[in-house]
């Protein structure tokens, strides 16, 4: 647990650890980045009675000094367990979390194990929460390029120490660096699996002080585009971008020039865009400027990079996609 602007939630978080039904040995490793050590130390006796040893380090300043990545690395490096369970100080574990994720990890030693969550306050980030809990096990690997970020969210992560060390430590760039996404992409890039325990094992808090709000959307976008090109588009000879609107055009403009040339068409359902017939890349230095056809989605051909937001059209987009009888991860990937 890295403690960073979360002292008001610590007691509930630590009670969740005391309440675990896992019967093996456990160690709590805390890095205190905001002067909350006294609160954590107040739980030492209760934790040790429960059989949980504790190691804690940090600094005495009330002002955070290290970024999230640095705090996570400190907490990992001072710990000794063969398995690592990542917990944010503002979230609460359900009693079965450790034992169910540990069991899953025994059979998936090179995978990142997540779980389903309950959002608090209830109803906050509804679309995101539905996505976290409901995408299929296969989609945990195919939907890694979407704007939602890691398909198992970091406060639910569990993995072997061996796998963590193989992937490497978290980026310590500090505020504004999406260290969880960078580590997740590195894990996937090294062939690591992504697995979710399909039970709600974490109360996942939403509040304005959360570190995730410090990361710029454009930073995330650029990382996603780079990973999509490296893992998918570089291997394709040609493809279609599904969405001739703002998001699809932005993706096109952000591609490398060699990958821009692979875009055979945009496709859409908007009759006005389709009637126009093409998209002109006005910023291009080429002459004549590239013009990419805009087709109705039924007239386009796979593979597709889909830049249409999921769960936003009352199921209309999802039905259109389903009608084409395509295979996700082969014929298309979601980007938005």
TrEMBL record:
Single Gene Ontology MF annotation: hexosyltransferase activity
User: Where does the source fall among the domains of life?
Assistant: Eukaryota
Glycosyltransferase 2-like domain ranges (all copies) = 1-167
Q: What is this protein called?
A: Glycosyltransferase 2-like domain-containing protein
- Tell me the organism: Oncorhynchus tshawytscha
């Amino acid at each position: 647990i890295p403690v960073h602007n979360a002292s008001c939630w610590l007691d509930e978080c630590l009670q969740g650890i005391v309440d675990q039904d896992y019967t093996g040995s456990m160690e709590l490793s805390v890095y205190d980045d905001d002067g909350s050590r006294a609160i954590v130390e107040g739980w030492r006796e209760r934790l040790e009675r429960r059989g949980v040893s504790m190691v804690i380090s940090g600094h005495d300043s009330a002002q955070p000094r290290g970024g999230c990545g640095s705090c996570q690395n400190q907490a990992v490096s001072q710990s000794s367990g063969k398995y690592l369970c990542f917990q944010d100080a503002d979230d609460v574990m359900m009693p079965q979390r450790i034992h169910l994720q540990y069991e899953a990890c025994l059979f998936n030693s090179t995978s990142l194990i997540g779980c389903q969550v309950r959002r608090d306050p209830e109803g906050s980030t509804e679309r995101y929460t539905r996505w976290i809990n409901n995408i299929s096990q296969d989609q945990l690997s195919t939907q890694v390029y979407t704007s939602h970020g890691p398909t198992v969210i970091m406060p639910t992560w569990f993995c072997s120490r061996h796998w963590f060390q193989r992937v490497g430590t978290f980026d310590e760039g500090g505020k504004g660096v999406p260290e969880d996404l960078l580590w997740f992409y590195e894990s996937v890039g090294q062939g690591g699996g992504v697995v979710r325990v399909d039970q709600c094992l974490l109360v996942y808090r939403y509040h304005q002080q959360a570190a995730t709000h410090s990361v710029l959307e454009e930073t995330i976008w650029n990382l996603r585009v780079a990973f999509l090109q490296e893992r998918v588009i570089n291997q394709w000879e040609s493809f279609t971008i599904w969405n001739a609107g703002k998001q699809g055009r932005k993706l096109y403009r952000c591609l490398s020039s060699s990958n821009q040339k692979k875009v055979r068409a945009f496709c859409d359902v908007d009759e006005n865009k389709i009637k126009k017939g093409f998209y002109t890349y006005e910023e291009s230095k080429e002459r004549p400027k590239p013009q990419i056809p805009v087709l109705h989605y039924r007239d386009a051909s796979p593979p597709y990079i889909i830049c249409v937001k999921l769960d936003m059209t009352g199921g209309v987009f999802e039905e259109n996609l389903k009608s084409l009888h395509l295979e996700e991860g082969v014929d298309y990937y979601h980007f938005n």
